[in-house]
Structure formats: C-alpha cells, structure tokens
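Lab manual, section 2.4: Encoding a predicted structure.

Procedure: take the sequence of the chain (215 residues), apply the prediction step described in section 2.3, and record the output as structure tokens. A sample record is shown.
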Amino acid sequence: MSEPSRATQHFRFDQILRLMPATFAIIAAAFIAISSAARAQSYDQLKGWCYGDATDDQTIEGCNAVIRANKESKADLASAYANLGFAYGNERQYDKAIASCDSAIAIDPKIASAYINRGIAYEAQGQHERAIKDYDLAIGLKPRDANIYNNRGLAYAAMGQYRRAIQDYDEALRLDFNFARAFYNRGIAKQKVGDREGAEMDLHTARQLDPQVGN
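Recorded output:
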C-alpha cells in the first residue's frame, strides 16, 4: 500500500473518532496504534531480509521494499541495490542483477560489492572482458579480498588466458592460503598449461581443505 493510501486511511479513522462515543474512540485509537506498529514491524522485517541472512526470494522482496520506502541513507540504499543484484544473480536473472548493480554504483561509485556482483553476472553471460573490468574496479576498492582475485582468475581462464589466471590465483592464495577453491582453480589452470606436477599438488591440497571442492 502506498503512502498516500495510508494517509487516507488514517484520515477516515480520525473522522470516525469524532463521531464515536469516548469508549469506542479509545478502542479505535488503540487499533490505529497497533496497525501503525504492525506496519513498522513489517518494514523492519523486510529490511532485515534485505541486509541480513535470508533466502534469495526474501532478499529480493526485502530490498525492493527498502528501495521503495526510500527511508535509508544513500550508502544503505546503495547496499540494498547491491544485495538485490546478488540475489537476482543467484536466481540467474542476470539482466536484473546488472541493472540493480548499475543503480547501486550510480548512488555510490565506491561500493565494491556492486562491482563484484555485476562482474559475476557478466561472467555468467559470457561477457568476460566486462567482468574483468568490474573485478579490476573492485580490487582497487578492496585489494585484500581473495575472492575477487579468484573471480578474476576464472574470467581470464574462460578466455583461455591460463597463465594470467594463475597469477590471480597466486594472489588469492597469498591472501588466504586455506582457500580451497583457489587451489582447485589453479590446479585446473596448471593442467591447461602443461604443469602436471603443479596441477596434482594443487588439486590434492584443494581436496584436503574441502573434499567437496570441484563437485
């Protein structure tokens, strides 16, 4: 329900209050207070879905509600768009993910998560060069985030640039030496460049860290 509709509803209750006996007026006033509290609680729940742990569907519903309400700071609104992009990406709605991240970046050009999420969506669409550009920007904002280097490595590998991908996996592992996925990805890239011994070592380490990696 839009804000104008809620205002109209309150006006009608006020009219009723003027016509009711005192006892009924008190009851009606209490009902108005409870309704207002319920609306506030509902928004708080939706906001929690947007910014906290939630399913992708809940995140989409929550962040859309936050965006519509336009109550939050510019930084939080940008985060809502970025989180929306993340959830749309998980739902494989990549065009919507990209559009949401575009909106986040328009509000806050220094929001790294929007570049990461947009890069992932571009990568899923096979737009590897665009993905790499977004990962470059994200790394400029968060140079110690191992996940971004791993993601960029995947984009380079998808383009057949395996040695360049290995450089990114090396950096990811320098930042996080327990990063099983980076060991696995580097192992695959080493296979592609003919480094069988290095590949076997990386794949073995990856499976020691996470037996499910690569499945």
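Check your result against the sample. The domain at 144-215 is CATH 1.25.40.10 (Serine Threonine Protein Phosphatase 5, Tetratricopeptide repeat).
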